[in-house]
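Table S2 (continued). Query chain:
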Amino acid sequence: MTERFIMRETDPAAFKAMLGLENYLSSTSISPLHHELIRVRASQINGCAFCIDKHTQDARKLGETEQRLYLLSAWRESPQFSEEERIILAITEEVTHISQQGLTAATYDKAVGHFGVKGTAELIMAVNIINAWNRIGISSQRIPGK
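Corresponding output:
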């Protein structure tokens, strides 16, 4: 596979706009480690090797364990994830697979009960932002480790 282009070099204005969304995320109530779990899980679903590589490294720097990263794709069967993380991961999967059933009422209600409406909206934005990055990474054939 040959890398097609690097967005920040080819279209700096588009890259800057995406960074604006990333900057928004730093102002949310989502913990940095939970941001990385969202990023890794969505990237696994979408098959973005560049983002999986980047965000698993970032998660480890924040203290995430190898075991939990290995189990992330099977979080429903893994007791290592808290109820809060299960809600976050359910939102991540349902929004990433939006055409299947959308964000279900059950998941939305759990999220609002735990995070409130604003916190739930922040989680939905976080999922959408990594999905956009995944689409850029996959379309431009970004190579992991570069």
